[in-house]
Design goal:
- Heterodimer of an alpha and a beta subunit.
- Its EC number is 2.5.1.58.
- α2 packs antiparallel against α3, α11 crosses α12 and α11 packs parallel to α16.
- It contains 19 helices and 4 strands.
- Helices cover 46% and strands 2% of the residues.
- The chain is mostly helical and 428 residues long.
- A two-stranded antiparallel ribbon has the order 1-2. Strands 3-4 form a two-stranded antiparallel sheet.
- β1 and β2 form a beta hairpin.
- It has one domain: Glycosyltransferase (Alpha/alpha barrel), CATH 1.50.10.
Length: 428
């Protein structure tokens, strides 16, 4: 929490990463439910206001966000800034985003290859492509004009190993694999992917001794890949088991005529209706929680969870037990925060992605577990698979956008409340 209000002089090297710092810290706190204490409601409101002002100061009139005030717009800090604002979940935060200007800026980043430049005259790779497609899909800006050629570009980046490189004919790498495949999931275009080859590539990246993931072949384990590889494992499983599960994670689907239709899981919709919260009420995020995982997990009807009792799970290419063990025993610093590996210093980046990977490993493919009569794994009742004490259980992170699932639902309901926007309307 202190990192949001004050950072020492050693952080000057991250001056161009201010939106990232806000996102890493906010998402980490959100997974730990650190933003929801009602006893700190005044502090939370003040924090949300300050973060919103800071993010707005990084936004340029020509569209997009820079890494800091008066810095050029760049896809990476734009992605981080928008996610930080969506985590806050207030109407003020939502309305801070200049959607028409951002849409025009995204269009200007489009490259003849089908991908997107990271910034004006910048490199073209799957990072820029994912950040544009993911943010556009969340903010109701994913038009056919923006998506044209993207699928072909991303498919060209799958390598002989099964993973995806940052560009065509480049080595497969965990971060690029996530970006490419998550973007294809959003576009509902995974038919052209060699899914079994991709599944095998991910399985080989989880090390048998450590339990954590390496980023690419012949590299050391790094805690941040707990998310980049772990989330991709979930998405591959969902793609292999049909588009229905995939659409539930995204939160919306595209009809044959191009219309975007919200399709949040029924339980989320029922919880919203029962809570009495309308689609226009975005004041207090605690009232619009789609699920309450920790409370649900601690109900008396849940089977006892013994430390280290589960060695399987419902994911074929990921040992959920081993990944959680690495994160908790090797990546966790005793004085707080998480890190790359033992003997490395803790930092906000690794804290965020270790916690995100831990959430993925705990919750796995939960929708499929609840619906399938033949669900694999040792928790067929749809309960999370937790290594160690139940107190280790985190909130559910969405494996495509990497913010909490209820924050995804909230944002979709706000930005799609009047139906999908057209290319022509966004250009006005």
């Amino acid at each position: 929490m202190k990192g949001l209000t004050h950072l020492g002089p050693g952080f000057i090297c991250l001056d161009a990463s201010r939106p990232w710092l806000c996102y890493w810290i906010l998402h980490s706190l959100d997974l730990l439910r650190g933003l929801e204490s009602r006893s700190h409601s005044i502090f939370r409101a003040d924090l949300a206001r300050k973060v919103t002002i800071t993010m707005n100061s990084c936004q340029n009139s020509g569209g997009g966000f820079g890494g800091g005030p008066y810095q050029i717009s760049h896809c990476a800090p734009t992605y981080a800034a928008v996610l930080a604002l969506l985590i806050l979940g207030t109407e003020e935060a939502y309305k801070t985003i200049d959607r028409p200007a951002l849409y025009k800026w995204f269009l200007a980043r489009k490259h003849l290859s089908g991908g997107f430049c990271m910034h004006d005259d910048g490199e073209v790779d799957v990072r820029g492509t994912y950040t544009v497609i993911s943010i556009a899909s969340m903010l109701n800006m994913l038009t056919p004009q923006l998506a044209a050629g993207v699928v072909e570009y991303l498919l060209s980046c799958q390598t002989y190993e099964g993973g995806f490189g940052g560009e065509t004919d480049q080595e497969a790498h965990g971060g690029y694999v996530f970006c490419a495949f998550a973007a294809l999931i959003i576009l509902s275009e995974t038919d052209g992917v060699d899914l079994f080859s991709l599944q095998g590539w991910i399985a080989r990246r989880q090390m048998s001794v450590e339990g954590g993931f390496q980023g690419r072949t012949n590299k050391l384990v790094d805690g941040c890949y707990s998310f980049w590889q772990g989330a991709t494992a979930i998405l591959v499983e969902m793609a292999l088991h049909g588009e229905t599960e995939t659409r539930k994670v995204v939160g919306w689907r595209k009809e044959n005529d191009g219309r975007i239709v919200l399709c949040a899981p029924q339980s989320y919709t029922e919880d919203l209706r029962d809570s009495g919260v309308s689609g226009k009420d975005f004041g207090d995020t605690t009232d619009l929680r789609s699920v309450c995982p920790r409370e649900t997990a601690m109900k008396s009807d849940m089977p006892n969870i013994e430390p280290s009792c589960h060695v399987g799970g419902n994911l074929e290419c990921l040992s959920q037990h081993a990944l959680q063990r690495y994160i908790l025993h090797c990546a966790q610093a005793l004085d707080g925060g998480l890190r790359d590996k033992p003997d490395k210093p803790r930092d906000f980046y690794h804290t965020c992605y270790n916690l995100s990977g831990l959430s993925c490993a705990q919750w796995g493919q939960m929708d499929s577990l609840k619906e399938s009569k033949n669900a694999r794994g040792l928790n067929p009742c749809g309960h999370p698979l937790v290594y160690g004490d139940i107190g280790n259980l985190l909130e559910i992170t969405n494996p495509i956008y990497n913010i909490r699932q209820d924050k995804v639902d909230r944002a979709l309901r706000f930005f799609y409340r009047e139906g999908p926007e057209s290319h022509e309307v966004l250009l006005l």
